[in-house]
């Protein structure tokens, strides 16, 4: 692709990109993909409920954040914190035994090797524009007892656009837990943070990756691409609490035998919030398991989207694939669009999927009120228990207690 064509497609999508585009092969591949596809609109099947294109049509300008110290807003025990603001790391990188933490600005160290920039449009835009990626490598055999906290403060004003990137490598036989917290209260509803995480889980390695998303009136797009090797165990827990528009694309490839993966999500919407979760699990090899549980609570005029797909390839015999999406509507004006999918090309598998959307059980509410709770107390107790089936997968006890309190706080705000 010529330099003129490259500049044309990127400046057509966003302004302020001059001097930010690298000339490496990875960027060129991303730009070629974008030139062919553009930004998806509601006419695309995977985006028919989520209008991300409106932000680009209204005009977005790339912004860069400066280095500045910050302190985590989460008060958790046994954590090692790395601070970010928008697209920049904002404190000194920690020294951790058995772990390498560094910034990569030359798009090496497995960055882009998943090929996500040729499959997801906004991941391609991120790949073309990001300047520095935070790389965390947990070395072979390391058993990391502390949780690594990526504390990302999102501060984006009108029409601001930022790209951030993380690469996580958990080498053979290593064990680690991560928490990525996106937070901010002063974001504009015309801004966008576009984030990509690439994850490599080695042989016989274990990784728990937790997300908390609460960015006020801002818009957040995340793409997480995960590749697992044989005998590994990967768990992800995504908790969405507030944001004008939150879209998560989660793609997992099981590239060896005896892999176990757990995908858990909980989302809580009010007002006109729109939260969209798309998951895709590729089973390539035999004797692997994927368990997926997503639950949501929707109030006001909010809109939820869940589209989960389990793809079983011909060689993936003895696959166990489970998928469940359950939702509770607290308002007649709330909308949930749920589409769990199975695509199976092997004949010796155990796969199931299901989805339910409805209101709280009136008999259960009556039962609790008969024992002294008011209507809100009874409702809150049932909804907290509903969320608890997802939160129990969070191994860090103080994080789990913090999430329970955040859910209770949002319930209280709904009451007000």
Main features:
single chain; 416 residues; alpha/beta; 2 domains; 10-stranded mixed β-sheet; 20 strands; 20% helix; globular; disordered N terminus
Blueprint of the fold:
Layout: H1 3-13, H2 25-37, H3 53-57, E1 61-62, E2 79-85, E3 88-89, E4 99-104, H4 121-129, E5 133-138, E6 143-153, E7 160-170, E8 175-183, E9 192-201, E10 206-214, E11 219-228, E12 233-242, E13 245-254, E14 260-269, E15 274-283, E16 289-298, E17 303-312, E18 320-329, E19 335-344, E20 350-358, H5 362-369, H6 375-391, H7 397-415
Parallel strand pairs: 1-7, 2-6, 5-7, 6-8, 7-9, 8-10, 9-11, 10-12, 11-13, 12-14, 13-15, 14-16, 15-17, 16-18, 17-19, 18-20
Antiparallel strand pairs: 2-3, 4-5
Helix pairs in contact: 2-4, 5-6, 6-7
What would you say this structure looks like, in words?
By secondary structure, this protein is an alpha/beta fold. It folds into 2 domains: 3-255, no CATH class; 361-416, no CATH class. The protein is 20% helix and 41% strand. The chain has helices at residues 3-13, 25-37, 53-57, 121-129, 362-369, 375-391, 397-415; strands at 61-62, 79-85, 88-89, 99-104, 133-138, 143-153, 160-170, 175-183, 192-201, 206-214, 219-228, 233-242, 245-254, 260-269, 274-283, 289-298, 303-312, 320-329, 335-344, 350-358. Strands 1, 4, 5, 7, 9, 11, 13, 15, 17 and 19 form a 10-stranded mixed sheet that branches. Helix 5 (362-369) crosses helix 6 and helix 6 (375-391) runs antiparallel to helix 7. It is globular, with a radius of gyration of 21 Å. The protein starts with a helix and ends with a helix. Residues 1-5 have low confidence and may be disordered.
């Amino acid at each position: 692709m010529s330099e003129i064509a490259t500049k044309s497609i990127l400046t057509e999508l966003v302004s302020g990109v001059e001097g930010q585009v690298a000339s490496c092969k990875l960027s060129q591949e991303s730009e070629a993909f974008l030139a062919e596809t553009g930004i998806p609109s509601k006419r695309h099947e995977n985006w028919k409920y989520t209008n991300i294109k409106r932000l680009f049509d209204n005009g977005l300008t790339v912004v860069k954040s400066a280095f500045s110290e910050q302190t985590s807003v989460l008060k958790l025990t046994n954590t090692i914190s790395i601070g970010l603001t928008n697209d920049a790391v904002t404190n000194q990188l920690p020294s951790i035994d058995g772990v390498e933490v560094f910034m990569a600005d030359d798009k090496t160290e497995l960055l882009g090797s998943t090929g996500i920039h040729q499959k997801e449009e906004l991941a391609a835009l991120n790949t073309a524009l990001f300047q520095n990626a935070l790389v965390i490598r947990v070395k072979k055999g390391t058993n990391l007892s502390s949780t690594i906290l990526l504390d990302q403060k999102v501060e984006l004003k009108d029409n601001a656009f930022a790209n951030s990137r993380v690469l996580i490598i958990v080498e053979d036989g290593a064990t680690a837990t991560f928490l990525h917290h996106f937070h901010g209260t002063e974001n504009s509803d015309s801004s966008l943070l576009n984030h990509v995480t690439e994850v490599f889980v080695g042989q016989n390695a274990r990784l728990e990756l937790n997300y908390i998303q609460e960015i006020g009136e801002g818009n957040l797009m995340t793409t997480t691409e995960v590749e697992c090797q044989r005998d590994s165990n990967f768990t992800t827990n995504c908790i969405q609490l507030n944001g004008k528009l939150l879209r998560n694309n989660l793609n997992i490839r099981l590239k060896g035998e005896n892999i176990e993966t757990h995908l858990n999500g909980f989302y809580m919407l009010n007002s006109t919030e729109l939260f969209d979760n798309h998951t895709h699990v590729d089973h390539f090899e035999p004797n692997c398991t994927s368990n997926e549980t997503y639950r949501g609570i929707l109030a006001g005029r909010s809109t939820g989207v869940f589209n989960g797909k389990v793809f079983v390839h011909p060689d993936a015999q003895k696959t166990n694939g489970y998928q469940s999406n359950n939702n509770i509507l607290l308002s007649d004006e709330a909308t949930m669009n749920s589409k769990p999918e199975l695509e199976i090309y092997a004949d010796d598998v155990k796969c199931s999927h299901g989805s339910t959307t409805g209101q709280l059980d009136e008999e259960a509410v009556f039962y609790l009120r008969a024992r002294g709770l008011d209507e809100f107390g009874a409702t809150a107790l049932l909804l907290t228990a509903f969320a608890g089936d997802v939160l129990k997968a969070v191994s860090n006890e103080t994080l789990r207690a913090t999430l329970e309190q955040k859910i209770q706080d949002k319930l209280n705000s709904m009451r007000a």
